Amino acid sequence: xxxxxxxxxxxxxxxxxxxxxxxxxxxxxxxxxxxxxxxxxxxxxxxxxxxxxxxxxxxxxxxxxxxxxxxxxxxxxxxxxxxxxxxxxxxxxxxxxxxxxxxxxxxxxxxxxxxxxxxxxxxxxxxxxxxxxxxxxxxxxxxxxxxxxxxxxxxxxxxxxxxxxxxxxxxxxxxxxxxxxxxxxxxxxxxxxxxxxxxxxxxxxxxxxxxxxxxxxxxxxxxxxxxxxxxxxxxxxxxxxxxxxxxxxxxxxxxxxxxxxxxxxxxxxxxxxxxxxxxxxxxxxxxxxxxxxxxx
Length: 296
Known about the structure:
By secondary structure, the protein is an alpha/beta fold.
């Protein structure tokens, strides 16, 4: 059988489970996950290679109506992945009773694209089967999908189902990346995203959406066999800064501890992580700051 290889983009509205699915398909934690919408801010490439195929997955920010320049960047990042890929995996939620405004707009865009589209109806574990049937029918009438697959991105069995359908649509070809490569994200970007994930998960207020992470130092300490990382956490208000630091610095300490533990697991090395919190008013509309933090 010929070797297959290709690029697959994962799209959908915020918080439908794109990053959860990506981590399931790759078998590694690459994309950050949170119950809050708009967790992913950049298009993350991860690579899955076997003896039969190589799939390069692109996890995108949720498609939404932008509210600031960062939002504009995120939407353009998602839209730019629709051209030049071999398969589009479009995720919606089983908990939706009908096709909402946001998904109607995405379907309008997909109708103009020549790329084959797999529709995954995610979170089927949260609804009764009879509720799902009218939704499947509505989507099947909305456009000509290659397949409509009800799934749960938290169920291990989903991996084989989705990978099988994706690989069927890939062209024959040589691998694009080395077999042992897992992601094209630099280590410092992975650490940046891990820190942001911990803030998203630990702080319940609106604060996390106004948070940006800047890695200011990333150095190997060979004499200690240690990776020393210093990072700035930028927020938009002094009140937000107080919440992130917490009483007696407890919240910042917790963020740092959890982020370090995750980073050590992913990078497979000992890490010393030092965090600072700084206020930068309206940084999400500041071109210089967006450029500094990698959103360009």
